[in-house]
Amino acid sequence: MSALPAADGPRAPRRWALAAGAALVVGCAVRPAAQRGATPPSLIERLRARGLESAGAAPLTTWSHPVDRSRLAPLRTLIASAQRWAAERLGVALPLHLAVLPRADWDALITWQPYGIPGVGGQPAVVFMPAGDDGLAAEDALALVDRWRPSTRAALVADGVDPATAARRYVDLVGLHELGHVFVGEIGLRPVRRWLGEWLASFVGYAFLRERMPAQARVWDAVLQGYVDAIAAPRHRSLGDFDRLYFGVGARNYVWYQAQFQQRVREVHARDGIGFVDVLRRARLALGPDADDPGSGVLLAALEAITPGWQAWAARVERGQSTAGG
Questions:
Q1: How far is the CA of 40 from the CAs of 33, 45, 81, 122, 194, in angstroms?
Q2: From the CA atom positions of the chain, what is the Rg in Å?
Q3: What is the CA 259 to chain-centroid distance, rounded?
Q4: Which of 6, 64, 131, 240 is least surrounded by CB atoms within 10 angstroms?
């Protein structure tokens, strides 16, 4: 069963907007009343009407502006590789469309989400990515580079990657996280807690990178470690707060949580690899919609029985510490 909604729109209805004191924040998106009464054109139809050109065929069709295709080839390579990996490792054979959009086309078509925040929307599924690296995700990561610890920066430099370049690449990794949500839904996992849903989306995207593009996985690790470095004392730190408030924790605090999830992603992948997903499916800890919705403490104890370290990780998160003890 697909994780995508039946109606055209984003994977999960949401938008990102500027907020005081933060470069970006996530919130709920609601379609205007005028749009609810009639069936709107599909995202594919709107791409075509906008004058974007399609190329290729199933399993991956691309859409791009005739005069702005500089990022099309690398993004097509990334998404096509993720598709092949999901088919081989998860049994998910999912046709996709990839739309690489300059700002003007994005603003006209992706009305629920500002430029630069990738997502997956529509039926058939469209992965939409910015044609440049000047959108909100990249800009926010770049704004924090000077606050990264020297060890975080040094790890990238030793790998031949400039920290500013890594921050710009972060936008593509956000796209993989969003695609991870789709793959998680396709294999039948329905997380009973928001934090576990976000964790699983990152886990699947990261597992793909570790197996097929390990240098990119190290970039993902470094940029999110940079968020932990730069945001030392966020207001909200408990998993309960994340479940209760979700996007309401605020922009930077939300990405700080994603960075903390990433640290546990790295730990579990190092121990269990993608096999952890099969164990989780058999344990039925993340299945629904009729599954029980246990408190995070109960869920953490059950996860602990599968792979030790979950409870210690949650305690570190609540103390505002990193895996490395920061």
A1: 12, 10, 32, 11, 29
A2: 19
A3: 11
A4: 6
CA distance 12 to 28: 9
Percent of the chain with pLDDT strictly greater than 70? 84
Write the DSSP assignment of 201-264 as a string of letters.
Answer: HHHHHHHHHHHH-HHHHHHHHHHHHHHHHH--S-S--SHHHHHHHGGGG-HHHHHHHHHHHHHH
- Give the amino acid at 141: A
Rounded Cα distance between 56 and 100, Å, is 14
Q: What is the pLDDT of residue 102?
A: 94
Mean pLDDT computed over every residue of the chain: 85
- At 19, give phi and psi (nearest 5°): -140, 155
Place of tokens 């910015």: 130
Which residue, among 229, 228, 308, has the nearest Cα to 271 in the 3D structure?
308
β-strands 22-27, 60-64 pairing: unpaired
Count of positions (residues) in the chain: 326
Q: Give the SS3 label for residue 290.
A: coil
How far, rounded to the nearest angstrom, does the alpha carbon of residue 8 sit from its chain's CA centroid?
19
Taking the model in full, what pTM does it have?
A: 0.87
Residue 292 neighbours by CB distance under 10 Å:
11
